[in-house]
Write a structure and sequence with these properties.
Layout (H helix, E strand, L loop, with lengths): L1 E5 L4 H8 L5 E5 L13 H5 L6 E6 L4 H11 L3 E4 L5 H5 L6 E8 L17 E6 L25 E3 L8 H5 L6 E6 L4 E3 L2 E2 L1 H11 L1
Parallel strand pairs: 1-2, 1-8, 2-3, 3-4, 4-5, 5-6, 6-7, 7-8
Antiparallel strand pairs: 9-10
Length: 204
């Protein structure tokens, strides 16, 4: 199972997380988020192992802005949390790994994902909220049984040390990785390394 740690913004904390060897690290490039990486330094990202996918997390951003972020910071992946169309996602597929996020609740229509086939590399299923993620809330993981496509997905939304055993029990064939964020923090954007170490031990 792949591990993504999302919502990093402090250089020393980024280095400490990287030392745990996650598969992906996420930097939120969305100003309204309390985890907004407003002072992100390219030098810090350049020190990360080539085996870690540096991921820019974005919400309804312009194509030009995204392209500049990819070029300036050498991002390996983008994670799109807004209303991005399949055509928009496909613009970046030859440049970086493209992850398209969707907020799930009991009324979610999985059929609308069909049009993203061929436009994205991965999906990410989060808890549906008005704030595009980072809520610390889980959704009913039984909903994942309704997902029938072949695009692998990340699971996000309220993952914590208390429920990782349940996460490991999810047997969906396309379950690719977990996204660890708000339940592994000392404050927004500052990860609790001790908690993450325990999570890595459970998941690896």
């Amino acid at each position: 199972m792949k591990i993504k740690v999302c919502g990093l913004k402090h250089p020393d904390n980024i280095s400490a997380v990287a030392a745990l060897r996650p598969d992906y690290v996420g930097f939120i490039c969305y100003a309204p988020s309390p985890r907004y990486a407003s002072e992100l330094e390219g030098e810090v990202l350049a020190t990360l192992s080539e085996n870690i996918y540096k991921t820019a997390v974005l919400v309804n951003e312009d194509e030009e802005v995204i392209s500049k972020l990819i070029d300036n910071y050498n991002f390996d992946a983008i994670q799109l949390h807004g209303n991005e169309s399949p055509e928009f996602c496909a613009l970046f597929k030859d440049k970086v790994t493209v992850i398209k996020a969707f907020g799930l609740d009991d009324s979610f229509d999985f059929a609308k994902l069909d049009k993203y086939n061929g436009s994205v590399d991965y999906l990410l299923f989060d808890t549906k909220t008005a704030k595009h993620g980072g809520s610390g809330q889980t959704f009913d993981w039984k909903l994942l049984d309704n997902y029938k496509m072949n695009i692998p997905f990340f699971l996000s939304g309220g993952l914590s040390l208390e429920n990782l055993d349940e996460v490991k029990a999810i047997s969906h064939p396309q379950f690719y990785g977990v996204d660890l964020n708000s339940r592994f923090e000392l404050e927004p954007g500052l990860k609790d390394i001790d908690k993450l170490k325990k999570a890595f031990e459970l998941l690896k």
